[in-house]
Amino acid sequence: MLFRKDPCGIICIIMTYAMLLHCLYAVLFVIIIPLLNESLYGTLNALIVSTFVFLSIFSHGRAAYFDPGFVPLPKNGIDFSDVKPNENNKQNGEGWTICNRCDTYRPARSHHCRICKRCVRKLDHHCPWINNCVGEFNQKYFILFLFYIGVTSIYVLSFILWSLIVFPHKTDAQVIHSIILCIESILFGLFVVAIFIDQVQSITNDRSIIDVLKADENSRSSPQTLPPAKVLFRKVFGPGPMILWLLPCDLKKSNQISDSQDMYHV
């Protein structure tokens, strides 16, 4: 498991867990139990909110504390003194390059993260909210984290507005927690929806954010021949029915993952 001692990342993780736990506490113990204690509707809402919060935390954990796709470092030092600068560090037609910071070869679409100090396969960006890079191995869990946070925000906001209409007379604590939940849901919801759209576009375009930023003018304007969108999504979410893509677990066969990792050892 990974954990970076990056102050910004640690603060963001604490804020994320604090808001999710506050959401769970406020909905269950401040609103549902006092107002809907003997109602089947209250029990149903408690189960739904608890499930969404659990899936959000679990998806965040898989994205934050596991390998995002680090390019393995060579066991022995490699001498790159004979590489000419004007070759743009490309080693073959498959797009392999040299990272002068890691002193290693890296496959196409791998980029160096200055915070993690490692090259990451299909690096999209370094996200402080998970204190980790978003790369080939954890992009699915990052997207699921965004999805479940967005769903939780919409559901909680709708439930709070409903409770304000049905139960207009509330205690001061219920009013305060309701206002805080509404603010959290709106801010968090808008934030994750914007990032979620960017992630979906990066999959359908088969280009990460860094790929787009580092591409030259010709590469950006030249048309791409892309496989069907379903094929591109399966590369990220794995095989099987689409409903299983919502599960924050790995659907790829273990031998496929090990082969994919071993082929990049130098």
What proportion strand? 5-15%
From the alpha-carbon coordinates, what is the Rg to the nearest angstrom? 22 Å
Count of DSSP strands: 6
Order of helices and strands: HHEEEEEEHHHHHH
* Average pLDDT level: 84
Fraction of residues in helices? 40-55%
What structural class do helix, strand and pairing data support? mainly alpha
- Distance, first to last CA: 23 Å
Number of helices: 8
Q: Looking at the structure, what is the overall shape?
A: elongated
How is the biggest beta sheet arranged? Answer: 2 strands, antiparallel
Low-confidence region ranges: 254-266
- List the domain count as a whole number: 1
Strand order of the largest sheet: 1-2
Question: What this model shows, in words?
Answer:
The protein is mainly alpha-helical and 266 residues long. The protein has one domain (7-72, 123-262). The protein is 54% helix and 8% strand. It is built from 8 helices and 6 strands. A two-stranded antiparallel sheet has the order 1-2. A two-stranded antiparallel ribbon has the order 3-4. A hairpin with a 4-residue loop joins strand 5 and strand 6 (132-134). Helix 1 (7-35) crosses helix 4 (172-204). Residues 254-266 have low confidence and may be disordered.
What is the fold's blueprint, element by element?
Elements lengths: L6 H29 L4 H25 L32 E3 L4 E3 L3 E4 L4 E4 L3 E3 L4 E3 L4 H28 L5 H33 L4 H6 L2 H5 L7 H9 L16 H9 L4
Antiparallel strand pairs: 1-2, 3-4, 5-6
Family: Belongs to the DHHC palmitoyltransferase family.
Catalytic activity: L-cysteinyl-[protein] + hexadecanoyl-CoA = S-hexadecanoyl-L-cysteinyl-[protein] + CoA
InterPro entries: Palmitoyltrfase_DHHC, PFA4/ZDH16/20/ERF2-like
